[in-house]
Amino acid sequence: MLSLRLAAIAALIEKGDVIADIGSDHGLLPLYLAGKGYSDLYASENKKGPYNRLKKAVNAYSSNIIEVDLADGLEKLPARINTVVIAGMGGDLIASILSAHPHKLDSVNKLILAPNSNAQTLRRTLNFIGFSISYEEIVEEKGQFYEIIIAHNKPCHVCSIETKFGSYNLRNKSETFIKMWNDVYEQNKRLLNNENLPEVRRKEILEEQSLIENVIKRGEKT
Ligand SMILES: C[S@@+](CC[C@H](N)C(=O)[O-])C[C@H]1O[C@@H](n2cnc3c(N)ncnc32)[C@H](O)[C@@H]1O
Question: How far is the CA of 186 from the centre of ligand 1 (A)?
Fold first, then answer.
């Protein structure tokens, strides 16, 4: 029987998710998922002791459904994995696991993370590595609170807007702030009239114009 925390994580896994459970320990989550009909699972541990325990638990069940690995974080993540679960560790450790092998995340669409401390470090890292939070939940079990975060592989729109314009400026929208960005907008229009403008620069300017139109001129909420 799964704990409420692991059951909440399992309930967030959808058909089509090819799961890696990093730091699987006892393997309870992949074993549960295998029992639910998931047929392609990956579970890893970075230490011999927990790895052997995991292997034993999985072998007793079915080793052709759950691939077990001794690996540090995402280091050996197979390319077929599209969803990574990392649960039951501190937010700092989860953040360092995600940052250590950035290219391994290229083929990952979804992260299901359950930090047992320092969720704020993890949220900052998600923004930095180009994942945006799409869902959050808090589970209470035996007087403890557990945060669960789902993030998808796309840059955070709100974060990039706040970084560009400044969250304080966006809240206050002073006359000079609006005037400054209207000036930038007009300068950009002149630059775009230059036929010799390199394509890469033209694309950047067009993206900036679109942001100015939406956020400054139309007042899109962040
Ligand atoms: C407390 S257990 C959590 C087990 C399970 N994920 C859960 O939520 O119940 C954390 C596990 O993560 C493993 N671990 C820690 N750092 C790791 C890393 N860099 N790569 C893989 N596993 C790691 C530990 O060995 C330990 O077994």
Answer: 53
